[in-house]
Amino acid sequence: MASDYKKELFSALQALQAEKGISQEDAIASLKDTLVTAYKKNFEGETNVEVDVDPEKQEFDLLQLKEVVTDGDMIDPYSEIYLADAREINPAYEVGDQIKFEINPRDFGRLAAQSGKNKSTQLIREKEKEAIHARYEGFEHEIVSARVAREDQRFLWVTMPDGQEAAMGDKDRIPGETYKTGDPIKVLINRVEDSATRGPQIYVSRTSPELVKRLFEQEVPEVYDGTVVIESIAREAGDRSKVAVRTTDTNLDPVGTLVGPRGSRVQAVVNELHGENMDIVEWVEDEAQYIANALNPAEVVDVIFNPNNDNEVTVIVPDYQLSLAIGKRGQNARLAAKLTKFKIDIKSETQAENDPQLQAILEESAKYADEDDQAEDNEALEDETEYTDANDYFAEDDKSAADNTNDQKASEAVKESSAAGSASPTVKPKMTEAENKEAQDEFAAALNNVDFDAILEEKEGEDDQKDDSK
């Protein structure tokens, strides 16, 4: 059975290990180092000390190693023992053997105990810092459900699920939000910093656009599994956010998916952010259309790109929608610019008509548009001409086939007349309606037997020969 003082020390070690969240191996290593350091500091001489620990039995022994020396040759009584004294313990000992003697830590005295405690505390804190940093550095930009702990002049402190405290600065707090101790709160782990004096410090945020994304991942399965992708978020925390989304499934409406049945999904996010408004817009590759979508709920007449700056556009809206497009204190235009990464200048139709520079750009754009349209028309005309030539060619072949058929019939008639003893061929009388119908059927049948591909190849060969002769 473990001695009482060992049980006390081991219980304290286990409690400290659980409280600080460090491994048993680190805790035992800390205990060993603490006891050895305390002993060497309070007992003179170059003592050779080691610690044996048995966690299952809650036993540990502090052992001093002494080397057996010849009688009269002792230099350090803390690390050596005479042969005669060693053989009183065991007659088998010889000079040079190592003997382990158990040391009672209570014999260290008050100073030794205090020294050991301080050393142990220091080592435990170092291990604690390492454990905290390792645990949280992989969770940066992840959402966590925490509770409000306390508030001081610099930070609002929240308690993480494992009991660790995290700090939220003023710039990471949503304006107007108030907190009471114990209130549940969802935060984004912004960063984990390591300080030589304070150790690792976790900083959390409620204003990061990333928090909005993580909240939608929790509320919308299609966002979590990647079917709906959040491409961009522009946020003015506590007031309004714009979220641009696209889908990898063409049968799915990305905006409707985030909004949810009767707005239930987006409302859950709004409630968590204490009433922050959410504008969900569709992200598309067409930049002009994307910019128009971003200015929702305003109606957009035209989006004009600055020919001298690819990141600047002028958006034209109906006169009566100018205020709506700009938004209260310019918020709608500002968020749309953040969302699309474009500098957006909004003008009413009247303002655009009276802007000479803008009109010049429009005229230039119209000119290029007309040239593009003309090029497309020319291309279409060329295609139509080629099609007509082909039809004419096949029509000529059809006529030739019909003439050949009629010539063949006339020749056969002459042969029949000659065979009948006629002195000269007779003119075939006019065909009756039935005979005409029969002739048309025969012509159609003959036409079906014509190999147009062969004729076309033959004609192309003739054309090539003509070109060569020229």
UniProtKB/TrEMBL annotation:
From which domain of life does this come? Bacteria
Q: Cross-referenced SMART domains, in alphabetical order?
A: KH
Record Pfam families: KH_NusA_1st, KH_NusA_2nd, NusA_N
Q: Where in the cell is it found?
A: Cytoplasm
Q: Where is the K Homology domain?
A: 237-300, 309-448
Listed Basic and acidic residues bias regions: 430-440
PROSITE patterns recorded: KH_TYPE_1
Report residue spans for region: Disordered. 392-470
Q: Which GO terms describe its molecular function?
A: DNA-binding transcription factor activity; RNA binding
Q: Which UniProt keywords apply?
A: Cytoplasm, RNA-binding, Transcription, Transcription antitermination, Transcription regulation, Transcription termination
Tell me the GO BP annotations in alphabetical order. Answer: DNA-templated transcription termination; transcription antitermination
What InterPro entries does this protein map onto? Answer: KH_dom, KH_dom-like_a/b, KH_NusA_2nd, KH_sf_prok-type, NA-bd_OB-fold, NusA_N_sf, TF_NusA, TF_NusA_bacterial
Residue ranges under compositional bias (Acidic residues)? Answer: 459-470
- Work out whether the entry's keyword set contains Transcription: yes
A GO cellular component term found in this entry reads: cytosol
Family membership, please give it.
Answer: Belongs to the NusA family.
Function according to Swiss-Prot or TrEMBL: Participates in both transcription termination and antitermination.
**What is annotated about its quaternary structure and interactions?**
Monomer. Binds directly to the core enzyme of the DNA-dependent RNA polymerase and to nascent RNA.
* Protein name as it appears in the record: Transcription termination/antitermination protein NusA
What lineage does UniProt assign to this protein's organism?
Bacteria, Bacillati, Bacillota, Bacilli, Lactobacillales
Gene for this chain: nusA
